[in-house]
Amino acid sequence: MIRVLITEDHNIVRNGITTLLNQEVDIEVVGQAHNGLEALELLNQGLAVDVVLTDINMPGMNGMELTQKIKASFPDINVLILSMLDQEDYIIRSIQSGASAYILKNISPEELTFAIRHVHLRSERYLCSELAFKLLDKVSKTKEHAFIPATDIDLTRREVEILNLISEGYTNQEIADKLYTSKRTVEGHRQSLLDKTGSKNSAALVRFAVLNGLIH
Q1: The model's pTM
Q2: DSSP element (H, E) containing 28
Q3: Statement: residue 130 has pLDDT above 90
């Protein structure tokens, strides 16, 4: 059973999601909170939770602040951001805060339950399909790079590995921890990737990698 805590300041939305999720045989809403402060209080009181589903804009403590505090004190809990905000800045900041998923409130019930199962059972990040296609469209229209055939770029196995982790939003330190190496080594590989692809920054590097099929 996947135990979910819903953090949302609108009662109708919160109750509606609770009703929806409790219809699933493998998902149970074990708690509700009006804002981040209430959610943390429940967790500190010992409420057993696998997934926290939270909005961003809430009184008292917003969703990104809540995410940071949860990951600091309860690292095994996955946080899913559920918001109406589709701007890239919010998505990036949420992932950097430690969120496992960013999904929009207009998604289907099926995608919501899929996202919850995905992050809990597979421990992988998730971006709802609407946002994924929106970002893909933006990438496909980007003309920042002159096209360099991927076959002309000689990347090492470790560079490809790091490139994939960069594309997933991991920081240098997080990549270093995952690969059991030093932050300085990762920084060196990142700079090498920038140099080899002619990218100005990490965002441009990821766009280039997607366009040239360097990452999966």
Answers
A1: 0.65
A2: strand 27-33
A3: no
**CA-to-CA separations, 60 to 35, 47, 146, in angstroms, rounded:** 6, 20, 47
Rounded to an integer, what distance in angstroms lies between the CA atom of residue 216 and that of residue 167?
10
Least confident of 81-95, 140-154, 177-191: 140-154
**Which secondary-structure segment (H or E) carries 24?**
none
Nearest of 158, 145, 152 to residue 203 by alpha carbon: 145
Using CA atoms in the order 27, 33, 36, 37, what is the torsion angle rounded to 10 degrees? -130
Residue 38 has pLDDT above 90, yes or no: yes
* Bridge-based pairing state of the strands 126-127 and 101-104: parallel
Q: Band the pLDDT of 146: cuts 50, 70, 90.
A: very low
